[in-house]
Design a protein that fits this description.
10 strands, Immunoglobulin-like, alpha+beta
């Protein structure tokens, strides 16, 4: 009789232990499925140029300064996801009226690494373009200083959401830009 009672108690404990183990496995499976589903639904962040300015470089002494210009881009990066993403690397090339200003071989690589973009958040990041030379493309230069150039910026923003890596290609067109160029540059 004592043996039968001991077997019933032991059997009940075994069933309870198996039930807890099975429940734990189901909960873990649901959590993993939920995390995986969240990563599969990661939307591509949106990249655009919010400001482009061109100015004479202060670091270059005259008269050479009037043959060079510096472009500054403010990129607006929006994260449409409900999780934060990290901007790890950024690279872009610039074309003025279809002419490569910085071709794919010489893409500008961003210095601002590991910038966190909050869920549904937006950040602005400034990047310069290496100096543009008046001697390299005189026709583009003369139109640029008049404000008549349509700029196309193509690139990749490399980001990370959780453990998923995202390479977000983008292409922006800018017709309206500010000029802070000395009259002698024209």
């Amino acid at each position: 009789m004592k043996l039968a009672i001991a077997q019933m108690v032991f059997g009940a404990r075994m069933r309870k232990g198996l039930w807890l183990a099975a429940s734990l496995l189901v909960v873990l499976a649901l959590l993993m499925a939920g995390c995986t589903g969240q990563l599969e639904d990661v939307k591509r962040p949106e990249v655009s140029v919010s400001r482009l300015s061109i100015h004479c470089p202060t670091a270059v002494p005259p008269p050479r300064a009037y043959k060079y210009a510096r472009m500054m881009f403010e990129f607006k990066i929006h994260n449409p996801n409900n999780v934060a993403v990290i901007l790890e690397k950024f690279e872009y090339a610039v074309y003025g009226d279809g002419h490569a200003v910085a071709g794919v071989e010489t893409m500008v690589r961003g210095e601002h690494l590991d910038r966190t973009i909050a869920p549904s958040g937006t950040i602005n990041v400034d990047f310069p373009l290496p100096y543009i030379s008046k001697d390299e493309d005189p026709a583009l230069w003369s139109e640029m200083v008049k404000g008549n150039v349509t700029w196309t910026i193509k690139g990749l923003a490399h980001m990370c959401a959780h453990t998923e890596k995202l390479s977000v290609p983008f292409e922006c067109t800018v017709k309206d830009y500010s000029l802070q160029i000395d009259e002698r540059c024209k």
